[in-house]
Structures are given as structure tokens and as C-alpha cells.
Amino acid sequence: MSHYTCPYCFTKVNPADVWFRCASQSCEEPNEVRTRYENDLEPTQPLPPEMIKRSYSTVFKGQSRDVGGCTKCYRQTSIRVCASCHSDFPAGIDGFANYVIAVVGARETGKSHYIAVLIQILKELNNRFNWTFSPLDDDTMTLYKDKFYSPLYLQQKPIDQTAGAKGNVSAKRPLVYGLKMRDSGKQVILAFFDSAGEDLESADNMRKTNKYIASASGIILLLDPMLMPKIRSEVRTDNLPDEKMIYYHGHIIDTLSNFLYASNSYNRTLNHSVPLAVTFSKIDMLRHIWGDEFERFTTPIYHKKNMLNLETFESNSDFIENWLVANSPDLLNGTQLFTKHHFFGISALGADPKKTDPDPASKKRTIRGGVKPMHVEDPFLWLLHANGLIPGR
Fold first, then answer.
1. What is the end-to-end Cα distance of the chain in Å, rounded?
2. What is residue 301's DSSP assignment?
């Protein structure tokens, strides 16, 4: 049986190296491994004297792949964990291939909204692509409901800005889903991380808090057209993102590229092999700027049963690339370092959230009429195709 990868810390796991966690809540002990993982410490880095080891259910090495006897209370357990970070593995992880789809972008580019809406759409596409898409653990169901679904779909208000990962255990927790392709029988684990923008503002920050990016099977890079100086002056909104982010936004492709070179020990004469979907969010703000061409983004792309419409993908990508040449050619430089890259335009919400409080200082907004997404699934579907999981023509 081949090695697989932990979807939480991305350590390669030998299937013969089996570890378990006791199922008894009363069987706990100080856990240095878990403490290191939650505080971004390296395996050889000493714990600071003031850091208290987290109490955690007893973790032990097992003799069998299916069940183990706790070394402390002797109860039987089937909860398998990663030896490197002590996270619980999704059930049946041996039968899954690991695909990490990294959604990255500077602050205020709409990553949380994108992830929230993408997950809803992937559930709705089950018949079109003959797949089953479902959460693989209870933490994923709870995190998605509380952080993403409830505010956006039930309360119809924007999602709060994501806190940085440093010292924030919940920010390190991915949304872990299983995607089973019913025609081919392929099963893949998809791990989605909602990273804070400040965690991506330098290669060093990425190295410390976003190690998953180095293991990504595909990267969706979100760019906000309102952080492009030439476009910023033309959009019609009272909700412009912070101008302080313009600099980081303009350099994020270079930052991402430098991080990948350092993490994977690439020779800089080589291009990155990971597919990159360069995705402009909030395109609803460009309706009057793109004019008649905006129509290409007002209706979903038609895909035949389990077959991507690559011709339309190419046409839309060429349009956005040409638009960039005229308005922000500097953003194109870094994309050439990725052998496979495409350009996409999406809107997770479909409209600019409106203010609900007349106070100029208030940031309270609402999504009137509910979420009306545009082409949110396109970058993800293209990455599945680039990884050989969906055919296209």
C-alpha cells in the first residue's frame, strides 16, 4: 500500500505506522506533540518554559490497522491519528488520494465568501459530474455551519474577516471533504483552508502558518480588481478595500512563487508544476467597465455530462489576460513561472453588500436578495481537470 498524506499537517504517512487515540474522555495526559502542532513549533524546537502542554486523549502506537488497546486504560479504540500532529484521520483515509486545493489571496479579496459559496455549489453539481461531495469529519460540518453557512445563507450578512493562524488553533483547522467520482471510482480528500490575508503577505509568513500551500495540488489565487490602481478609480462603490493592501496585492504572485521555490527546493530555472488558477473576485463591480463583454460571466458555462467545456474556459481566460495587459501588466509577470495557469472571473456574492447603518463609521452590511454567485466553480473545475480527475474538450 502506498504512502498517503495527513490532510492537517501534510506529513507523509507510512500505512504500516499506525497510531490511535483513546476514545475515553477520562483518559487524558499532557501531549507535547499536539502542543507543538497548535503553536507552530518545529519537532526539535524546545517548548518555551511558560507554555503548558495541552491535555489530550492518550495517543499510542498500534499493532493492527483496525483497532488498538490504549496503553493507559486498556480500552479498545479505532480512532486513528497522525503520528506527527495527533489529528484524527478521516475514516477510510487509506482509500483516498490527497488533493489540497489552496485558496490564497491578500486581505479583503473575499476568500471566506469564495470558500463558503464554492462548497454549496459543489454539492449542487453532483448530478452534472456524477460525484458525491461530503464532509469527512464532524469538525468540518460544525466549522462550515458556524463560520460560513449561517452568516452568509441564513443571516444574509458578510462573513467576518478571518483571524491570523499564529496562535489561533481554529484557523489551522481545514474543511475536509471527500469527493467520490462515481464513474471512475476515484476517491479524493479535499482540504480547504481559509487563511487570513496577513498570513500570506510574505514568504516567511507562509512558511510559518501556511505549510499546506507547498503541498497543494492546485492553487486558486484570488485577486481583487479594486486593489488594482487603474481600476480602483473607476469602480462605483462605497466599499473599497483598504488601500494599504494595494502593495501586497500587487506582489502576492511573486511572494507565492518565492515560497514555493524555497519549500520545494526548486531550481529557479524551472517553472512551478502546480496548476495556478488566477481568479479575479468581485467581478460584479466591473459590469460597467467590461460593458458587453460582461455578459460572458452572467450565465454559468454549460458543461456536458461529466465533461468540461474547455473552449469557453479558454475564451474567458484570454479575455481576462488581454484586459490585464491593458490595465495591470505587472500582475502577469509572476504567472509565467507556472507551467499551467489560467485566468478566471468570479463573484461569490453577485453584488456589493449594502450598508444597513447610516453612520459613516459603521461597517454593518447586508446581502440584499441573498447570494447570487457568478462562475464560482470555474477555477475549481479547471484544477480538477488539470489533475486528471475530470475530462474536458
1. 34
2. P
User: What is the reported pLDDT for 165?
Assistant: 44
Strands (E), the chain: 4-5, 12-13, 19-21, 28-31, 54-57, 59-61, 68-69, 76-77, 79-81, 97-105, 131-135, 175-181, 187-192, 218-223, 276-280, 341-345, 354-355, 365-366
- The residues pairing with 177 across neighbouring beta strands, listed in sequence order, are 135, 190
pTM value is 0.87
Give 140: exposed, middle or buried? Use CB within 10 Å, 0-12, 13-18, 19+.
buried
Q: How confident is the prediction for the chain on average, in pLDDT?
A: 85
pLDDT band at 270 (very low <50, low <70, confident <90, very high): confident
Domains of the chain by start residue, with CATH: 4-91 (no CATH), 96-386 (3.40.50.300)
